[in-house]
Amino acid sequence: MNLDSSPIAAIATAPGRGGIGVVRISGKNISSIIDAVCAMHGKPLQARHATLVDFVRADGSVIDRGLAIHFKAPHSYTGEDVLELQGHGGPVVLQMLLQRCLEAGAEIGLRLAEPGEFTRRAFLNDKLDLAQAEAVADLIEASTEAAARSASQSLSGAFSKTVQELVDRITNLRMLVEATLDFPEEEIDFLEQSDARGQLAGIREALTAVFTQAAQGALLREGLNIVLAGQPNVGKSSLLNALAGNDVAIVTPIAGTTRDKVIETIQVEGIPINVIDTAGIRTVEEAVDEVERIGIERTWAAVQKADVIIHMLDAARGPTREDEQICARFPESIPVIRIWNKIDLSGHNPSVDRMPDATHIYLSAAELAGMDLLRQELLRLIGWQQTGESLYLARERHLIALKSAHDHLELAAQHAAHDSEATHPALDLFAEELRLAQDRLSSITGEFTSDDLLGVIFSRFCIGK
Ligand code: GDP
Ligand code: ZN
Question: Which domains occur in the chain, in start order?
Answer without folding.
Answer: 8-124 (3.30.1360.120), 137-217+395-445 (1.20.120.430), 227-382 (3.40.50.300)
